[in-house]
Specification:
six-stranded antiparallel β-barrel; 39% helix; alpha+beta
Length: 557
């Protein structure tokens, strides 16, 4: 009996092992297949966005003029030059001489008139960012949303300046061109442009600056070319541009299923650990020879952590040799597990050449990002879209195209119109039609198999218990049989069982102890002495037909 019980326990354990193996191998586990580096980038690509900051203002500038007293001073100087033989005594030579005096010192002669022109100017800045909650909280650099008042004014003035200089050159160039035979020489043209710039910088007035922000994500609408889709965003909190704590938290409204990226622990990053920077570098993203549809996809650069550098603003930056370019600012820098350990923020540029120095790129650490999220009472969390997308990518990578198509389709229903998701849907369908699918019978079939195996295991377990005498009896009739000892104590065990049995021996139907003179078994109701199955009157062990000695205790029947 003990041998069969041990065999049953082994079989039960084997069934449980099979059940757990099936559950883990058929998509019933809590986590999908592990992602490789390419798939990590695909997840980051879905959650990385372009952040567009729009700055608008009114610029006022008085039309330039040369007052009469300044003209009189110019005439006297030119007359003196003619008398000294420095200038020929003709109208063209005198006009050219006067023009050279003006261009040599423009602010001495060119003054604002009473007529003021007002122009609307706009400047746009592009950076990168990523969502940390499915309802629309996202992270980027502070300098992406607020470069600083000085930088804003300079940028807007430069925008207005270009328009002003172009207009001034169109009018002044025609007036002065007649003194050069209709065509101003290139060197004089350059001097005239510089004079207009000096005047505009001196007298331009900038009005109130209005700021707005848009988060751009890839969109693929049937019948319409793939492009960027913008969602208005508001600044929740922001630090200061570098060397300050260069972090900003934005929020878009009306969203519940946005793709997110998880924050990692930058303290665990060591020198030479790999890092992947994802974002929208401006020069590459908006390259004129590229199709507009290519703008929806961020680019990636790889490198390692070079060192930790202390910033004068009171925080520690991570230096990396992964390339960072204008437009990358605020984009995620990922560790080998696909977690964000920093924001791409700034690089060192050679002041003489204007070219970025190799390997001198810096990240704002994720720990600093967490500070700003805590200030804003924002708790990063992963959404359903990200979980499904990661699972689908894992299935796709294992040629489980039917499962992948199911999950990509659900992602598309929650987060519709994304071109990356739709391409995976199309590719999965093509692989299924080509007979490349290795998905297996499906999770429903596996679930039914698990249920059946669990039922068999439970049946085996409780069946063995019943055979061991675990069948319940009325409380007054309960007997606790001592365990059967191994040889050589058979005789002593038989004597103990016989003493515990009672004067009536054991039931022939179920082996329960009987009282003296009892006619029916209290356990199974069998009449005493009736039934084909017989049991040892001393230990209750089952007996074969015609068996004279008990195989368990050895007592003669």
């Amino acid at each position: 009996m003990m041998g069969s019980w041990r065999s049953a326990r082994k079989l039960y354990g084997l069934l449980l092992t099979v059940v757990l193996t099936l559950a883990a191998g058929c998509g019933l586990s809590a986590q999908g297949p592990a992602l490789d580096q390419h798939q990590i980038f695909e997840v980051a690509k879905l959650g990385t966005v372009m952040v567009v900051s729009d700055f608008k203002s009114q610029v006022s500038i008085a039309k330039p003029t040369i007052p009469q007293d300044k003209l009189s001073s110019l005439e006297q100087q030119v007359v003196s030059m003619v008398q000294q033989g420095q200038v020929q005594d003709n109208q063209t030579a005198i006009a050219q001489a006067m023009m050279q005096l003006i261009l040599a010192n423009p602010l001495e002669y060119i003054q604002p008139s009473n007529t003021v022109d007002t122009k609307s100017v706009e400047m746009m800045a592009v950076g990168s960012g990523f969502y940390v909650t499915p309802d629309g909280y996202l992270v980027t650099n502070a300098h992406v949303v607020d470069p600083g008042q000085k930088e804003l004014k300079q940028g807007l003035a430069q925008t207005a300046l270009k328009s002003f200089v172009e207009h001034a050159m169109a009018s002044s160039g025609a007036a002065f061109g007649q003194f050069y035979g209709g065509q101003i020489p290139p060197d004089v043209q350059k001097q005239l442009e510089n004079a207009m710039v000096q005047y505009a910088v001196q007298y331009m007035q900038l009005g109130k600056i209005h700021q707005s922000y848009t988060v751009e994500m890839g969109a693929a609408v049937p019948g319409v070319a793939t492009g960027q889709h913008g969602i208005t965003a508001d600044v929740v909190t922001a630090g200061q541009p570098t060397p300050g704590k260069d972090v900003a938290i934005l929020k878009v409204e009306g969203q519940q299923h946005l793709p997110t990226l998880a924050l990692g622990n930058d303290a665990q990053m060591r020198t030479t650990d790999p890092v992947l920077v994802v974002g929208y570098p401006g020069d590459a993203t908006f390259l004129s020879i590229l199709a507009k549809s290519s703008r929806v996809e961020p680019s990636a650069t790889k490198g390692v952590i070079s060192r930790r550098a202390q910033m004068s603003g009171g925080w520690t930056a991570l230096q990396t040799d992964a390339a960072i370019n204008p437009g990358n600012s605020g984009g995620p820098a990922l560790n080998s597990a696909g977690q964000v350990i920093g924001l791409a923020t700034f690089t060192v540029v050679n002041t003489q050449t204007g070219v970025a120095e190799t390997g001198t790129n810096f990240l704002v650490p994720a720990s600093l990002v967490r500070e700003f999220l805590q200030q804003a009472n924002v708790k990063p969390r992963e959404g359903q879209v990200t979980k499904l997308y990661q699972q689908a990518l894992g299935e796709y990578g294992q040629d489980q195209y039917r499962y992948a198509l199911r999950d990509f389709t659900e992602v598309n229903s929650l987060f519709p119109g994304n071109p990356f998701v739709q391409k995976y849907m199309t590719d999965s369908q093509a692989a299924i039609l080509a007979g490349k699918d290795r998905s297996g019978p499906g999770p429903v079939v596996y679930a039914l198999a698990v249920v059946v195996l669990l039922a068999l295991a439970a049946g085996l377990y409780f069946g063995v218990l019943r055979r061991r005498g675990a069948k319940p009896t009325p409380p007054a009739q309960v007997r606790t049989a001592p365990p059967v000892p191994a040889e050589p104590g058979v005789v002593e065990a038989a004597a103990t069982r016989e003493a515990a049995a009672g004067a009536g021996g054991f039931c022939a139907g179920c082996g329960a102890a009987l009282a003296e003179g009892q006619k029916f078994c209290p356990g199974c109701g069998t009449a005493v002495g009736v039934g084909d199955k017989k049991f040892c009157a001393h230990c209750g062990a089952p007996l074969g037909e015609g068996q004279k000695f008990c195989g368990q205790c050895g007592v003669e029947e």
